[in-house]
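Is this the right way to post structure tokens for a design question? Let me know if I should format differently. Anyway, here goes:
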């Protein structure tokens, strides 16, 4: 076990460097990780180290058809699920569950079109520092239509759920649940969820016996890739492995902490892309890798990343698009969001305040809902591009942060259309630095109707007055074209210097009291009323 643990950075008890084995990568995962158990999945039969898998429950790896799902035909004393959450006995039995019952590293490859990987080291594992399992994803494709496709039930829990000692800084290097995305591989995990099932021994009914008034949870697993314990996810030395998660409900979930250190993770989910769900305790930490989240909104809602405690981003590339049709955020954390590094783009219809960290950020609050799929470009006063973002879903709030976002004057473009906005009057920012942001969560604009997405790219009329001409259409002939990288803006559009007054500071002030210049200062920056730039001509026409 000690030799296995020494292989993985941030993934095992030893928390040792991965570079030693990465430099010696061979053609197969078996050669790369000689101590690891090889599990090859197939609908025709699973093999373990080249031999047919056992059905003996005492084996380190065995298969059965005993998946936990929300059963159809149950009454109200069974759980909180609806008919849509329920599955028949035949649907459940169609799934092959690959059980892992002993500590170690397991290399997963192959395809399982109806099944699940279930890690369970026993009820005592939570308190046992040696109860550590690492799943090495080496070109695997797992689909489960009735429950999570991958689930960690019982392994070592390195964290605590004590609210009195909780903080945004956690060390999960000793966690019992670990995932390594092998370099050069593409891995697909498509999963469902399990609605809340009551512990039958705890169910209390009302006096007339018609409703449940109290109960404890026996099962509830919302994510396609799920862990009941704190979990680490990492990539190989090169970080070239890819994990695609597709979920009809939530995507990647833990019941305590989640740390992402590397690899490329793409999540498409019907609800929250990521959820860590211990209230006022959980910490989602992103240290590296590439994370791309799109919430499809099949459930009618969903944040990009939702932590019931803290969200801390220290590095990596993070893109998170919340549900188009609900008041949800790209980034959401009940105890606070901290940005210390990395490149971040989050879009949604709610802004959850960023209140800590050492990296500058900007929040653009649009005057009306924007159609997904359009590209936004931020340029400095030299005409150089410092950021380009294409939110996948409709949104009203765009949050961006990167090491390139330094203090200075910028222009913002939607395609070739220049945008204008106003700096927020409310101040505050990371580490007490200046910058505008609301002190509390911002609601969508008054005209936002989640049931009426934009049609053909058109935008609803902004609430504060008459909309500028050509909103959602082509720019008028007299509107400035976006300069190419490295080129200065055309004559007459040079952003003038100026302070951050109530109307957005210096720059050409429009009829809506907006400025074409976005003056960023160190810390947090919040801009409201963002909309296509009104020229002096159109402003005068509107006024008359």
């Amino acid at each position: 076990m000690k030799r296995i643990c020494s292989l993985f950075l941030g993934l095992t008890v030893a928390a040792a460097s991965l570079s030693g084995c990465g430099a010696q990568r061979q053609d197969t995962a078996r050669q790369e990780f000689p101590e690891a158990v090889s599990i090859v999945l197939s609908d025709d039969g699973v093999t373990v180290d080249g031999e047919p898998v056992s059905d003996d429950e005492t084996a380190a790896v065995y298969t059965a058809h005993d998946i936990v799902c929300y059963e159809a035909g149950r009454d109200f004393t069974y759980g909180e699920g609806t008919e849509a959450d329920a599955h028949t006995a035949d649907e459940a039995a169609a799934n092959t569950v690959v059980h892992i019952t002993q500590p170690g590293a397991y290399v997963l490859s192959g395809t399982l079109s109806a099944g699940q990987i279930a890690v369970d080291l026993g009820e005592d594992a939570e308190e046992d520092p040696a109860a550590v399992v690492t799943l090495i994803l080496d070109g695997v494709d797992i689909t489960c239509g009735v429950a999570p496709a991958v689930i960690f039930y019982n392994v070592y829990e390195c964290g605590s759920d004590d609210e009195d000692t909780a903080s945004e800084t956690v060390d999960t290097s000793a966690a019992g649940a670990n995932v390594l995305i092998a370099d050069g591989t593409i891995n697909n995990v498509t999963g469902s969820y399990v609605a809340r099932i009551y512990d039958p021994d705890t169910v209390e009914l009302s006096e007339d016996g018609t409703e449940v008034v109290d109960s404890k949870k026996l099962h509830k697993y919302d994510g396609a890739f799920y862990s009941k314990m704190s979990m680490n996810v990492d990539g190989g030395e090169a970080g070239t492995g890819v994990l695609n998660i597709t979920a009809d409900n939530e995507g990647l979930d833990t019941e305590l902490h989640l740390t992402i250190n590397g690899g490329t993770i793409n999540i498409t989910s019907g609800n929250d892309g990521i959820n860590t769900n211990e209230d006022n305790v959980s910490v989602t930490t992103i240290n590296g890798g590439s994370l791309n989240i799109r919430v499809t909104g099949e459930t009618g809602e969903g944040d990009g990343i939702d932590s019931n405690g803290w969200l801390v981003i220290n590095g990596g590339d993070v893109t998170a698009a919340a549900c188009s049709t609900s008041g949800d955020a790209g980034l959401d954390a009940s105890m606070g969001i901290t940005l210390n590094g990395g490149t971040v783009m989050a879009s949604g219809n709610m802004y959850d305040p960023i209140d800590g960290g050492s990296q500058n950020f900007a929040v653009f609050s649009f005057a009306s809902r924007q159609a997904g799929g359009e590209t936004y470009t931020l340029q400095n006063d030299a005409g150089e591009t410092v950021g380009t973002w294409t939110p996948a879903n409709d949104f009203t709030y765009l949050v961006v942060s990167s090491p390139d976002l330094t203090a200075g004057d910028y222009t913002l473009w939607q395609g070739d259309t220049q945008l204008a906005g106003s700096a927020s009057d409310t101040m505050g920012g990371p580490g007490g630095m200046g910058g505008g942001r609301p002190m509390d969560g911002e609601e969508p604009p008054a005209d936002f109707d989640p049931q009426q997405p934009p049609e053909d790219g058109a935008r609803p009329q902004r609430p504060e007055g008459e909309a500028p001409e050509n909103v959602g259409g082509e720019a008028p002939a007299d509107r400035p074209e976006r300069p190419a990288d490295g080129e200065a803006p055309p004559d007459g559009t040079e952003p003038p210097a100026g302070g951050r007054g109530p109307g957005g500071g210096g720059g050409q002030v429009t009829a809506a009291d907006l400025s074409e210049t976005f003056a960023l200062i160190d810390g947090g920056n919040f801009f409201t009323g963002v909309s296509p730039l009104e020229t002096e001509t159109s402003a005068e026409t509107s006024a008359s």
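Format looks fine. Someone answered above. Worth noting: The chain has a mean pLDDT of 83. The first helix runs from residue 2 to 5.
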